[in-house]
Structures are given as structure tokens and as C-alpha cells.
Amino acid sequence: MHDFFGLDELALRLGRDRRELEKLVHRGRIPGHRVEGEWRFHPAEIRHWLEQEMRGYSSEELAALE
């Protein structure tokens, strides 16, 4: 399981609020896996999800990410 990271680390990596991400993963908007009651995320799945999400971003939103 060393390739996976938890919800707190995902929030830190994305610079987002943990509670916001938890809602999204519960709704199936973010790819995650429940392991022993905890959410786990694989970096490759998160990268793919981000690439899909970013397609809908405006130029201003993309610039803000940089």
C-alpha cells in the first residue's frame, strides 16, 4: 500500500480543504479506494483525474494553478 496516500496528504498536495475533498470522493467525483475504513488514493489515478478536470478550466484558472 506504499504507493497510495491518504485524504490528508491529497488535501496537502492539492492545496484544498480536506472536508471539501472528502465530500467529492464520497460523491464519486475523485477516484479513491476505501481500505480499512480510510480513503486511499493512487497517484496515477489522481493525475489522470486532474488532467480530465483541467480540460474544463479557463485560461485564468490554469494561470492561477501555476
The proportion of residues forming helix, as a percent range, comes to 40-55%
For the CA atoms, what is the radius of gyration?
Answer: 12 Å
> Uncertain regions: pLDDT < 50 for 5+ in a row?
none
Largest sheet entry:
3 strands, antiparallel
Overall pLDDT: 88
User: How much of the residues is beta strand, in percent?
Assistant: 5-15%
Tally of alpha and pi helices: 4
Strand order of the largest sheet: 1-3-2
Structural class: alpha+beta
Order of helices and strands: EHHEEHH
Shape: elongated
How far the N terminus sits from the C terminus, by CA atoms, comes to 30 Å
What does this structure look like?
The chain has 66 residues and is of the alpha+beta class. It contains 4 helices and 3 strands, in the order βααββαα. Strands 1-3-2 form a 3-stranded antiparallel β-sheet. Strand 2 and strand 3 form a beta hairpin. It is elongated.
Short description:
Helix content is 55%, strand content 14%.
SSE blueprint:
Layout: E1 5-6, H1 7-14, H2 18-26, E2 33-35, E3 38-41, H3 43-54, H4 59-65
Provide key terms for this protein.
alpha+beta, 3-stranded antiparallel β-sheet, elongated, 4 helices
